[in-house]
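Renewal narrative, Specific Aim 1. Our central claim is that a sequence can be written position by position from structural information alone. The example that follows is taken directly from our test logs and has not been curated for this report. It begins with the structure tokens describing the chain, in the order in which they were read.
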């Protein structure tokens, strides 16, 4: 596939790296010549220096031969103009990142039609959606749904009280799910039966949605109801999260240092208590009860403030923290700082785009995990001799991949080696990024 990306920021870089490694022909357009030189040296891509809002520049980059057009600069205007220009050419799919909420509140479908955009992404909306989704499962650091919500992929940290520590996967009978990955020392392991669970492992498990509570009980995970939340910061993400949570009858306290912004938030939120103070004022936060909070969400505009406010809250007894980080480079460093979940809006936006791109070919849907080094796809089994009525133990799935669930006529099956495949079963498959092309070929070549 020929792909053109406008914008060489963190999202553009991430997408260029992932898509070029997969063998796509990627052209990256940006006005920063020095950045383009560096990326062209590091990545197997073509770069074009100039504005993405210029028809001449886009033609120079080969827009007339482009299959997928992605505009992810920091300017809404440039992204929208670039998509409008691309309408003049035979581009099959257009994606744009837009921050202005007006494009979403007044009908994103109309906006997409007007500008010829197939996927319109708001980083703030995507970030708030992720925070609210994670708030529904107090112990999970990542959640993704498949098969119309019937199948859930959950990421958990194995704490010292987990009764499954030092047990092999062979011994975890009746788990009602499949452990599809173990992350240990920043390395992703596709587990086999003799692999043993250790303290501080991060595990990914595929489970039927109705069995999530049973799995959490098996792992001795807390299933407390979210009652009170502190939000540090009063920007767009904080506002969106507070509005969603208060509608769910959750007690929300929002901390914002700007008096004018506090007035706006007080006027536009119904039940949230807005406090005019600094997110690092320990005494003020303790008086308001941050030590008893079920969840603290730190979403100021400064990474250092978000990290420190999260650490402060955890130190005083808050059960869980979700921390906003503009730079995803810091995320791997935070595991040892007791920060439960670190989220980058740029990484979330990039992953949304990848999910959209992945959901083609043999795939029904896909999710790129926030860890960035693994993916999950939902794929149909082709009606060929290779798969027809075969037991799973007799099918050599690609190295680096594992089957998590089977969906057959709307019914979810947690597989074992004796499970037989039927034509057109839908499989939920987890795999490390290095195995992606092999997994796709494994199904596409048999169709």
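The sequence written for that structure reads:
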């Amino acid at each position: 596939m020929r792909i053109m990306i406008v914008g060489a920021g963190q999202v553009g870089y991430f997408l260029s790296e992932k898509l070029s490694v997969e063998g796509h022909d990627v052209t990256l357009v940006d006005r920063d010549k020095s950045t383009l030189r560096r990326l062209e040296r590091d990545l197997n891509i073509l770069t074009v220096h100039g504005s993405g809002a210029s028809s001449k520049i886009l033609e120079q980059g080969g827009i007339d031969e482009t299959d997928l057009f992605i505009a992810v600069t920091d300017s809404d205007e440039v992204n929208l103009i670039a998509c409008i220009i691309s309408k003049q050419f035979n581009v099959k799919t257009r994606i744009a990142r837009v921050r202005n909420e007006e494009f979403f509140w007044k009908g994103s479908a109309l906006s997409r039609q007007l500008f010829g955009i197939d996927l319109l992404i708001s980083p703030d909306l995507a970030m708030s959606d992720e925070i609210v989704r994670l708030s529904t499962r107090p112990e999970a650091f990542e959640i993704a749904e498949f098969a119309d919500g019937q199948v859930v992929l959950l990421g958990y940290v194995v704490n010292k009280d987990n009764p499954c520590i030092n047990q092999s996967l062979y011994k975890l009978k009746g788990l009602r799910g499949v452990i599809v990955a173990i992350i240990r020392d920043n390395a992703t392991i596709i587990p086999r039966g003799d692999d043993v669970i250790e303290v501080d492992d991060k595990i990914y498990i595929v489970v039927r949605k109705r069995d999530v509570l049973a799995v959490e009980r098996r792992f001795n995970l807390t299933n407390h109801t979210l009652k009170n939340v502190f939000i540090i910061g009063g920007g767009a993400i904080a506002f969106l999260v507070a509005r969603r949570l208060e509608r769910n009858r959750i007690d929300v306290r929002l901390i914002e240092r700007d008096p004018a912004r506090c007035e706006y938030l007080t006027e536009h939120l119904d039940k949230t208590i807005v406090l005019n103070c600094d997110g690092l004022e320990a005494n003020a936060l303790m008086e308001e009860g941050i030590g008893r909070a079920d969840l603290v969400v730190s979403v100021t505009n400064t990474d250092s403030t978000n990290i420190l406010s999260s650490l402060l809250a955890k130190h005083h007894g808050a059960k869980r923290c979700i921390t906003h980080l503009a730079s995803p480079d810091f995320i791997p460093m935070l595991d040892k700082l007791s920060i439960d979940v670190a989220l980058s809006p740029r990484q979330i936006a990039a992953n949304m785009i990848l999910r959209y791109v992945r959901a083609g070919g043999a795939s029904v849907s896909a999710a790129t995990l926030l860890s960035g080094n693994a993916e999950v796809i939902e794929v149909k089994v082709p009606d060929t001799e290779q798969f027809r009525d075969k037991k799973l133990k007799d099918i050599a799935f690609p190295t680096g991949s594992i089957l998590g669930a089977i969906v057959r006529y709307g019914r979810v099956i947690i597989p074992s080696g004796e499970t037989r495949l039927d034509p057109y079963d839908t499989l939920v498959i987890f795999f490390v990024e290095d195995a992606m092309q092999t997994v796709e070929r494994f199904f596409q070549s048999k169709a």
